[in-house]
Amino acid sequence: MAIRAKTFRVIRDTPSAFRTGLRSAFAPLVYAVENVGVTASLTGRTLRWLFRRPFRLRQVLAQMEFIGVQSIFIVGLTGIFSGMVVALQTSYALRTFSAEGRVGGIVAVSLTREVAPVFSAIMVTARAGSSMAAELGNMRVTEQIDALTTMGVSPVQYLLTPRLLATVLMVPLLCVLYSTVGMGGAYLVAVRWLGGDPGVFAQSVKDIAVVEDLRMGVIKAAVFGFIIAALANRHGFHASGGAKGVGLATTRAVVESCVAILVVNYLLTQALLGGND
Questions:
Q1: Quick check: is 94 in a domain?
Q2: In the prediction, which pLDDT does 11 show?
Q3: 3, 68, 96, 192: which could join 170 in a potential S-S bond, CB 3.0 to 4.6 Å?
């Protein structure tokens, strides 16, 4: 009888164990699908408030100052060193073919198309995106967002829409700044330190780089800004669980933004280059 009862318990518990294992195996997929759905829904609500009164101009300007102006130093610093290292690597690579005169144009294309939009977006994610998620998360767990709703103010319009609009506007400008100071760093290395001819450097930029390269970078930066704001808003706005939950929401916002930037960068490059063929 004891053996029979034990066998019955094993059979009875097997479906539950199977369901638990199945749930654990598919948990990442379920989270990803749910995350995409919640982000899309919240972002759609945020976009609808862009065209409805009252327009929060003061909030938008404050966010533009925080996201854009306060990011100038870190973006400029990373931009100049990125230009320097790209110029250094390119100079040594082209020296084998006696083509050092093409360094300026190659660096210009690399910066404007790829390096500037990706790295400026990542810097904004690290500095402003993490701060947005943490600030919104703290407001959520301290019930400040609920207080706005109680007072008849839409938290989506008051908190999320200005952040989304400001990020989309400022990241392309930071991308242009990154490209500009990056070219300054490239000139410093290729001409001043490695002894290149300044006229040849400038002529190679004129011959190889075109306005389409800058346009591609600006389009990418605008899309990346949208992604940064959408993910920071989503994780901060729906944070829960006190201080630990705010930290987790901030981490998820930064990690998911960086991964999304790299993935979308490839897709945009493929689409934009395909459109130029």
A1: yes
A2: 44
A3: 68
Residue 211 and residue 107 in contact, taking contact as beta carbons nearer than 8 Å: no
Number of independent structural domains in the chain? 1
- HEC letters along the chain: CHHHHHHHHHHHHHHHHHHHHHHHHCHHHHHHHHHHHHHHHHHHHHHHHHHCCCCCHHHHHHHHHHHCHHHHHHHHHHHHHHHHHHHHHHHHHHHCCCCHHHHHHHHHHHHHHHHHHHHHHHHHHHHHHHHHHHHHHHHHHCCHHHHHHHCCCCHHHHHHHHHHHHHHHHHHHHHHHHHHHHHHHHHHHHHHHCCCCHHHHHHHHHHHCCHHHHHHHHHHHHHHHHHHHHHHHHHHHCCCCHHHHHHHHHHHHHHHHHHHHHHHHHHHHHHHHHHHC
CA dihedral sign, ordered 65, 71, 73, 79: negative
- Domain presence at residue 201: yes
Integer-rounded Cα radius of gyration of the chain: 25
Q: Residue 251 domain-assigned?
A: yes
Report yes or no on 82 lying in a domain: yes
Span 143-159, pLDDT tens digits: 898 898 888 888 889 89
Tens digits of residue pLDDT in 172-209: 999 999 999 999 999 999 998 888 888 888 999 988 88
Residue 263 belongs to domain spanning = 28-276
